[in-house]
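Let us practice reading a record.
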Amino acid sequence: MTLCCGLRSFFQFFKMPVYLQQTKPRTFRHVYFRSLASTSRLSESVELFGKLYPQDDYTNVTPKILSKVGKNLHNQKYHPLWLIKERIKDHFYKQYIGRFGNPLFSVYDNMCPVVTVEQNFDSLLIPSDHASRKKGDNYYLTCNHMLRAHTSAHQRDLVCSGLDAFLVAGDVYRRDEIDSSHYPVFHQMEGVRLFSIHECLSLQLFANVTNGEDLLLFEKSPRTPQKQETHTLEAVKLVEFNLKQTLSKLMTHLFGGGLEIRWVDCYFPFTHPSFEMEIKFQGEWMEVLGCGVMEQKLVNSGGAHEKIGWAFGLGLERLAMILYNIPDIRLFWSEDERFLKQFHVSHIDQEVAFQPLSKYPPLINDISFWLPSQGYSENDFYDLVRSIGGDLVEKVSLVDQFTHPKTEKLSHCYRITYRHMERTLTQEEVRVLHKALETTAEQELGVVGRY
């Protein structure tokens, strides 16, 4: 559960500069953005997995993002994300066994990333006016379909299918800033476990409770910071204990014994109470996952009215970057054998001593422009940068804002850091990309350059 915080690439960014692969002055990328600017052209469609999605006012997915859909890095054997996923899966398989000796948790790691808006938001009780629904933060195919922003979009459907314990892993998509730890496509893994009163007693979840047979899961009472209005405090505390114990064991399995863990209270629309787990790693506290007691309305919507449950969610990239000291999230998309071969292990629990690749020098260019009076979004600009510069762009920072004293127009200055992961870029190469960015920003975003 996201509690926290494809098609082959059009351009092989780690092979050669984008501009060398463009043989026509008007690339598909430019045509695509123009089609988005004209929302009346509904005859144009986005095709994914053999299905057409006619563009409408909400369509904002870009060719760069579409090129990542279906790559499924978490299922590519010996990829670091696959390695983390397999270690988590193996831990749950071995630690939690069902009545007949089979693994208690089932695993789903190949579910389609195209979901409905209802699945992504409404099924998780996210209010219609919640900020997370914004077009500026998500990739919409249409007003009704989108690339999932979290694996939790499948949660209700899996509960409806009768599952009480499952893990879901997959690629998720969010429009975001550009730096070494953010990428518009990343991977999550979440877990859900539901308990009936009978299952709780048989699993000895309530073993330390006097007269456990008399314990109730549900009641009608006021909601408090400690519990929902439908849950008894005793049941919540015991489920919370089981959740934290489960996750503490998982992190100890991944990071080793002696790990320091602390819990921070937080808020999520789909759990209450909710927590973030922080671990002390190399002397610093780091948040690694979010979790909580599932909102009973969500559980009930899946047809499990008599059960109470917990859920957690974590980012696979974040765990891999911490565990293996991977400095740049772009590396996960690299096809460089110097990177990938380091994760060819004989056993998934084999320790990996990652050796950083040579870091080639950056080239830094600034871009300044006047913003239009309305309709400008920073995430639109970031998407444009990614579409033109691709993975050659390491970071984009807003370094200056200026309001003209007479016209009251607002100007932004962004500093763009270009760096190839496998060779040294030349200023001539970057100048071509940067010029294309300036021109396209004016055409597609309505800004006025200050070059």
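A brief commentary: The two ends are 45 Å apart (CA to CA).
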